[in-house]
Amino acid sequence: MTNLEKMGQNGQRAAFELGQLGTQRKNNALLNMANALVMNTDKIIEANKEDIANAKKNGIKEAMIDRLLLTPDRINDMSDGLRQVMDLPDPIGKVDRGWETVSGLDITQERVPLGVIGMIYEARPNVTVDAAGLCFKAGNAVILRGGKEAINSNIVLSETLRSALKDSNINPDAIQLIDDVSHETAQKMMELTEYIDVLIPRGSGKFIKMVVNKAKVPIIETGAGNCHIYVDKDADLEKALKIIINAKVQRPSVCNAAEKVILHKDVANKFLPKLFAALQANNVEVRGDTLAKAIVPEIVPATPEDWGTEYDDYIIAIKIVDSLDDAIKHINKYNTKHSESIITENYSASRKFMKQIDAAVVYSNASTRFTDGQQFGFGAEIGISTQKLHARGPMGANELTTTKYLVQGDGQIRH
Amino acid sequence: MTNLEKMGQNGQRAAFELGQLGTQRKNNALLNMANALVMNTDKIIEANKEDIANAKKNGIKEAMIDRLLLTPDRINDMSDGLRQVMDLPDPIGKVDRGWETVSGLDITQERVPLGVIGMIYEARPNVTVDAAGLCFKAGNAVILRGGKEAINSNIVLSETLRSALKDSNINPDAIQLIDDVSHETAQKMMELTEYIDVLIPRGSGKFIKMVVNKAKVPIIETGAGNCHIYVDKDADLEKALKIIINAKVQRPSVCNAAEKVILHKDVANKFLPKLFAALQANNVEVRGDTLAKAIVPEIVPATPEDWGTEYDDYIIAIKIVDSLDDAIKHINKYNTKHSESIITENYSASRKFMKQIDAAVVYSNASTRFTDGQQFGFGAEIGISTQKLHARGPMGANELTTTKYLVQGDGQIRH
């Protein structure tokens, strides 16, 4: 069994060193990591072939195998990702605020690394590189625990990154992979409160729920997305159609894809047949409540469970409501606090929706697909936080930091 | 058994309404609450007398009974506390940042309430009022669960606040008290993830550890403070003496009191006898390592456990080190990430200590006793966070908020 305590101690030591490195040396190391990936393409693909062969042997379905697959192009993409992280501003050392107190103390609140970050994730081996790069940029050591399907790829990828750290004269324990993929080790990792400052799970909604339930280490919950688009009575219906199709179809498997459409009754008769046709033309199964079915009989009846379900697939469910207030109430009840959008040309309706919807990101007249670190301009992301503590929405390097108060005095005591 | 789900639902409904109230109405309600406390002084003291009588009957020790005791003066203090919270700036609606993306979306990141906050705490009934006021100011509903020793006081205090909310035409479920003090109900509260957004425990280190271990709701850990003062070889020894005595003696029972002194060997011979005498004169038991005992034989030998122990009492332990690096290593190993101070006139030593110590607050030449919401200028605090997620150090109204991204477009879809 893997010695997690030892890994934890090594991680803490590396994190301490990393916290003192400075931007230049971190960026040099990121460049070395990026180059090392490309130079080791053959070795990485060889290891990946083993994973692919095992996956086929175990009857894993085609879509999953595609997620597992590494090609020279995909390795190049991971390498480019590290270069982009290198180009990001360094969040460490930034002073958020500062002031002098009545007792004459000078206080500054400065950004510092979180320390040791645990990443626990499912199949895709690119998470190994993406997470390692972003955690490193923010001065954190990372302990990675990927899925067993990608274990051979993950071992070679992490070894490649560690060699690059060694070549950069940096403690390679800044990036550690748990190569024991047993459930016992995963459970132990989730309880390693003494060494891991925060645990970030990446994967399916089911996987994340499992981690949230079992972990003792503080967690940042990511990814569950039951996103709604509300078409108001004063919507520009052309915009609405374009946005719904984009939000559902452009990439249905991701968390910021739309899963539900809420229609104001005043536009339902006119808009629903068009919407239905467009969704059908894009191979989307359309479910709906009885009011929707009354307008378009081909609609599949939605069950009560539908309203809380994230399909991640070519399926959408449509509900018709009497008012904006009903739409807000329904969305706040069933959403996963991820991303919600209103389509309207009405100023007051937009303002009310933006104020009253409880979610990480609330849109007016735009596709929910923009909830993404790249699209937000953060450069890269470690995930989309759907919790309210610490970080909410797309998490970039800045969200992988905490703060420290530095207080300078000249002998002050408290009276 | 208390119907916690029902309380959770009522809390969520109240939180939604509270989030839309605006500063003026919240401040009016806070004023009404402050007045109601004073007007109900007799009733509050009557209920408190029951708690005091029970405590005496149960043989609870004098210091604890003093914490439980409410007097007209103390009720006035609580009332003044609410008035101070009223005068604080409202954190809700503040825009932290905003920008336009390449796709022409306007993004603002705005401060919004956390939602429903759970407070679980031990004896002192003033926490009921302090916590309710600060949570309310930040637009949050609060569910309070105080210790059984203060239950009669807590019931009357919370009812008084709820009446004031009703009189202010505000949903009284913004402040709810769990009046069932059984362990089962506490455990159920700690698992109420569907309704409580964050749980804040207040009390002894042991109590907080218990909550951290048992809770499923995300927690903000507060309060454990094994604080160090390091006296550098280049310290101004007069400042050092004054600061150590202040940090240890001014109020030994609190988390920002100093528990350890780390002495550089070059000043130990000269400084330790003076320090020992001053500590003795203040009735402080002085423990120390063998090097310290060699200089002052009256020092009690410290055991290995001493270095990690928070005394909260008139006890201090002294360790002598060879270098600044050794001091930093020792502190980072044993501290609770609360508050640490270096006493030095040496610029580089100060800079290194401030950069390398891992704690919520790091001081140069000042008493650790300043780690406090009032002293920092936050007006009031809900506790001192010793964790790295979400908030670190003194937590005021601002730390009881989260953010929401508001994104405005005119039909943008993702390509």
TrEMBL record, chains A, B:
It comes from the Bacteria. GO terms for biological process: L-proline biosynthetic process. InterPro entries: Ald_DH/histidinol_DH, Ald_DH_C, Ald_DH_N, Aldehyde_DH_dom, G-glutamylP_reductase_CS, Glu-5-SA_DH, GPR_dom. Pfam families: Aldedh. The keyword Acetylation does not apply. Pathway: Amino-acid biosynthesis; L-proline biosynthesis; L-glutamate 5-semialdehyde from L-glutamate: step 2/2. The keyword Nucleotide-binding does not apply. Its EC number is 1.2.1.41. Its main location: cytoplasm. One of its GO terms (cellular component) is cytoplasm. It is found in: Cytoplasm. It catalyses: L-glutamate 5-semialdehyde + phosphate + NADP(+) = L-glutamyl 5-phosphate + NADPH + H(+). Belongs to the gamma-glutamyl phosphate reductase family. PANTHER family: DELTA-1-PYRROLINE-5-CARBOXYLATE SYNTHASE, GLUTAMATE SEMIALDEHYDE DEHYDROGENASE. This is Gamma-glutamyl phosphate reductase. The gene is proA.
